[in-house]
Sequence to fold (663 residues):
Amino acid sequence: MSYQIVHSTFGRYRIRIPQLAYDSEFASKLKVLVESLAFVTEVRINAQASSLIVSYQDDFCSTTALEKFVACIQAVDGSEIPLTQSLPEGEDLKPEVNQWKDLGFPTLSLTLALLAAPLELPPLILFLAIAGAATPWLNRAADNLLNQRQPNIDLLDSAWMTMQAVQGQFIAPSLKTVLVEVRRTLRGNTTHTREELSLNLLKELDQYVWVELDGEEQHVHISNLQEGDRIIVKSGEMILVDGIVLYGYGLIDSQNLTGSSKPVVCSQGHDIYASTILLEGELCVLVKGIGLNTRAGLAALLAELAPVHDTKIGALQAEFVKNAILPTLALGGTIYLMTGNIGAAISPYQFDFGSGIPISISTTVLQALIYAVRHGIYIRSGGILEALAHVNAVVFDTKVLVLDSPDTLEAITILQSQNIDIYLVSDAPESITLDVAALLGIHPHHVCAEAPSSQKINLVRGLQHQGKTVAFVGDEKDDAIRLAHAHVSIAFAKTSEIPHTTTDVVILEDDLRGVTHAIAIAKRAMEIIYENTATIVIPNLFMQIGGGMVLGVNPVYNVIVNNGTAFVAEFLNGSRPLFETNFLPPLRSSSQRISLGNIEEYSSSNGKALKQSELAKRLGVSPQSLTYKRLKPEFPIWTQARDPEGIAWDFDPVAKRYRHSPA
Fold:
C-alpha cells in the first residue's frame, strides 16, 4: 500500500490512500487513531476520493505532524508504507487558511490602537496586543530560521510590525494583522465551501436509479451500473450519469455543470451529463460514465484535490521571494544608515509579493481545471495547464485523426493560425501519410511516415532541442512511450476510468477541437495570472518606493494598498469566469464508443451508418487505409473479409459515412 500527499497548507494535510476507497474498516480505525493525536483539530475521510483530510494546530511543526500521520497509517495497516510523492518545492508558500476565531487578537489590537488616544492607553498595552496578534508571524519566522535554516517572508512582516510599534505607529501593524487574517479566513471558508459542495455533489451522484432491464424498470444503486446499461430519468430528477439519449424528449437545466441558465432541449442521440436536471419529459439514457468518471465527478475530484501547486511560475516566484529576503533586509539597513529615517528604511519590508501572487495563481489554475473538465477536457494539474499555454508544436499520430470530420480540419486550421507548428507521424506508407498531410494543409517536411518508434521519439526530442514546447496527441496505449517524451501528452478517452489515466490531458469526446479548447483555456488562465501579478506588483512598487521611501506616506495606506491588491487578485480577478458560457463551441459527441449492440438500438431505419474511425476500429485497420481504399470497386469485398460479422460496407460520399453494402 502507498500514500500520496496531494495538498498541504499551514495547519492542514490532504493525503490520498487508495485503501480508503474500498476498506471501510481501515478508514474507521485510521480516523479514530488520527483523532486521538492531541494536536489534531479535525479529521475527515473522503472514501470516493480516497483521501484523508487532517487539520491540526497551526503552532505545531508541519514536518512532525506528517510523521505522526504516517505512523498512524502504518499502525493501522501493519506495514511499512512508501511515500509516492514528496512535498513539492515552495510548499511552505502555499496559501494559509484560518477560521473566524483567529481574528480575536487582531481585532482586539486594532480596537485598542484606535482607542489609544481618547483613552490615553499606555503604549505597553498596545505593544503587547500587537505582539499577540502577530504571534503566528513570529512563530512561522522562528520555525523557518530554526528548522529550515533560512528566512521567509514572515521575517520581513515581523520586522516591519515590530519597528512600526517601536515608533509608536500602532494602527498600521494592527490593521495589517486584521486584513491578512480576514483574507486567510475568507480563503479558508472558500476552500471549505468548495470541498463541501464537491462532497455533496458526489453524495448526490451516489443514489438509486431506475434501470431498464428486459423491458422492465428496476430500482438499482448507481454503483451497480456499468457502461452500456440503460436508465430511465423522469421529470424533476437529477441526471446521475453521463450518457446518450436512446429515446424520449426532455428539457434539461445544465447550470450546475456549465453555468448556462438557458434550458437545453434534448432528444434521441443527444449527450447528457451528470448533475444536470431534467425539468420536463422522460428519457431513456445509455450510460457512458458514473461517479468520478463523469464530467461533474471529475470536476468535484479536482476541486477536492486542488492539484494546482506545481506551476513553474509559482516555483519561480517562490524562489524569488526566498532569495529576496536578505537583500531586502540589507536594503532597509542601508537606507537607514544613509538617511536616518526608520520609516523609509522599513518601507521595503512591505514588498510582500510572497502571499498575494501564489494565492492568485492557485485560485485561477483551479478554476481553469474545473472549467475545462466541465467542458469535456480533463487536465491533470496546474503544471500541465501552464505547459499547454506555451505549446508551439503539436505532433499528431494519424491514427487519432478522424479525416471525414470537418472538426479535424477546423482544429488544424486554428492551431496553425496561432503559429503552432503541426507534425504528423504515422505507421502508414509515406504516400498515404502525405495525402493526409495535403488534405489537412500540413507541410510535407513535417511528415514522419513508416518510421519506427525510436524515430518518432527523436522527432519529439529534436523539436524540444529547438526550444519548442511540444504536445504529442496519440493513443494512450499504443503511443505511451512517445507521449511520455513530450512536454504535454494528449489522448482521447477510450474508457470511462479517467482518474487513473497517466496522460496529461484527456479529451473526453472524439473531437480534435478538444486540443484547441485545452490550449485556449490554458492561455486565458495564464493571461489572468499575469493580470493578477501586475495588479499586485505595480501598485505595491509605487506605494512602497514612491509613497513610503520618498514621500513618507502614512504606513496605514501602505497596508491598505498591499492587502487590497492581493484581495482583488485572489477573490475578484482570479476567480472570475475564464470565458463566457458559450465562448467555446461544445465538443462533438463521442457516441461512437458505444457498443455495437446499443448503436443498433437507436440507429436510423435506413441502416447502420458508421464514421471512419468507428469502421476502422471495427475492422481492425487504420483510418488512413479506409481513405485509400473506400472509393475502389473491391472495397465492399475487402471490408467483408475483415468484418467480425462478415458485413460488407460501402462509402457514402455525401453523408461521409459507411453503410451496409446492398450486395
Remarks:
- The longest helix spans residues 513-551.
